[in-house]
Amino acid sequence: MIKVMVVEDEEQIRIILGKMIEKNEGCSVVASCGNFASAISDFMKFRPQVVFMDIDLGGESGLECAKAITEVDPKVKIVFATAHSEYMANAFEIYAFDYLVKPFDMKRISKTLERIKGMTETKNEQAKLEPSHEKLIIKGKEEINLVDIKDIIMIERSDGMSRIVTKDEVFLTSQSLTSLEEKLDSSFIRCHKSYIIRVDSIKKLEVYGRWTYTVTLKDTNETALMTSEKYDELKQKL
């Protein structure tokens, strides 16, 4: 079951959108709210995998709300559902999964949800069937490197590039964090939307903001960020 949250300041639209979403098999609206504070609170409580977000929340910024939510869970799918098409470029800068313009179309919403369900099912099947990789193929601009996965300490996404950090070298590639993450085993954790780290390389965590920690790592001067949700997940593993 795909858990969905609707964030829309107009109650009637919120109700209609929620009903349209729940007409899709395998989707359940677990939370519905109309402002920034309620959205963060409900997200922390219900942990939806998908958030339909209006751009204008009664004068508050839906873009900023989406940024805060992705800080909590980098894997959440944000679908902007709004009358403001001019914000599309800004929305995709914060990893929006899709952008729907009012008035909403049932077929368009269903298409978006089917894509999300398909991605979830494919990832689950791949996790069951694919063997673990011993080396990571890193495609750079002028060369291809084969890096031992056991040597990787951290991967950071910055300025459209992924930085793969080992004890002795740093490799750059345009490959996304998601594509790299799929090739790694359970000794790594996607601790933030911009970071993947090796769990046994963690040396120290320090509070950095309300829902984030700074992670100091062994064998490198590099640091990473970890959301509070991933910290809770890490505690369960350890």
Q: What is the count of β-strands?
A: 17
- Characterize the overall form: elongated
Give helix % range. 25-40%
Radius of gyration: 19 Å
Q: In percent terms, what proportion of residues is strand?
A: 35-45%
Number of DSSP helices?
Answer: 7
Structural category = alpha/beta
Task: Kindly report the average pLDDT value.
Answer: 88
List low-confidence stretches.
none
Please report the distance between the alpha carbons of the first and last residues.
28 Å
Summarize the entry for a quick read.
This protein is an alpha/beta fold and 238 residues long. The chain has helices at 11-22, 36-46, 62-72, 88-93, 106-129, 177-181, 228-237; strands spanning 2-7, 27-33, 50-53, 56-57, 60-61, 77-82, 96-101, 135-139, 144-148, 152-158, 161-166, 170-173, 188-192, 195-198, 202-207, 212-217, 223-227. The two termini are 28 Å apart.
Secondary structure topology:
Blueprint: E1 2-7, H1 11-22, E2 27-33, H2 36-46, E3 50-53, E4 56-57, E5 60-61, H3 62-72, E6 77-82, H4 88-93, E7 96-101, H5 106-129, E8 135-139, E9 144-148, E10 152-158, E11 161-166, E12 170-173, H6 177-181, E13 188-192, E14 195-198, E15 202-207, E16 212-217, E17 223-227, H7 228-237
Parallel strand pairs: 1-2, 1-3, 3-6, 6-7
Antiparallel strand pairs: 4-5, 8-9, 10-11, 10-14, 11-12, 13-14, 15-16, 16-17
Helix pairs in contact: 2-3
Task: Describe the overall structure.
There is one protein chain. By secondary structure, this protein is α/β, with parallel strands linked by helices. 33% of the residues lie in helices and 36% in strands. It is built from seven helices and 17 strands. The protein has helices at residues 11-22, 36-46, 62-72, 88-93, 106-129, 177-181, 228-237; strands at 2-7, 27-33, 50-53, 56-57, 60-61, 77-82, 96-101, 135-139, 144-148, 152-158, 161-166, 170-173, 188-192, 195-198, 202-207, 212-217, 223-227. Helix 2 (36-46) runs parallel beside helix 3 (62-72). The radius of gyration is 19 Å and the shape is elongated.
